[in-house]
Design goal:
With about 280 residues, this protein is an alpha+beta fold. It is built from five helices and 17 strands.
Length: about 280
Amino acid sequence: MKNFFVITNEVKDPQGGFTDRIVTYIENHGGKAVCLKNEKNDFPAQGSFEADCALVLGGDGTLLRAARNLMDGELPLLGINLGSLGYLAEVESAAIEEALDKLLADEFVREERMMLSGRIFAAGGEEERYALNDVVISRCGSLQIVSVRIYVNERFLNDYCADGVIVATPTGSTGYNLSAGGPIVEPSANLLLLTPICPHTLNTRSIVFSPEDEITVEIPWAKDGGRQVVEANFDGSHKITMYTGDRLVIRRADKTTGILRLNTESFLTVLHKKMSDVYEDRK
């Protein structure tokens, strides 16, 4: 590949020096690069520049935003980590030239990562959003217990009293799901994870579902009979307020995100290194 979008988190590269370094390297080796802000309206006019992939500079959050912005174009992404810890951003900043050489020589593997579709049914109408990592239903405002009712394939599963619930993809298993005690899943797998957040019971654990399953989260009346107000959060950025009586139907999306892999190491090897890095940082 020769043509690249370069999407930069300006907070993590405030002077643009690292971005300029990448653009210069690509152009000096026969490629072309167009720098973008991580917003849809910053993209070039249709047909003016056809990129082969998007280089996303920042951390996992930057890559998640880029995934949603680019999902209709089927453009693969490569994350370049400018933060402290990134599971999605594979390339560390110190190894950028080696990574660019592999891309320019077409030495990579493309993985298609499962995404989630979440459709909210509320009194004001319907709204659909997408997520690569997870959909989180959590309390809104002051500290309080959230009551949610879960159905799977329209059959009642359980009522949860918790700080919220997470529905995650395998890609998102190392995000909030992991922090909430959920399992880590190989990211190229296809399945759904349901994990309660700080549940107020002793026997509540994560549940793994088939990718064909449909999870419905219903907001009932609070235990004291009051009206509940919660938030549905898609990949940690787009929030939708929900009220008692609203429903959120989550299923596997008909869209995927292409992630480029340059590292031939197995997922378990990479995971071990990430965990070791966290341990060393805390010593």
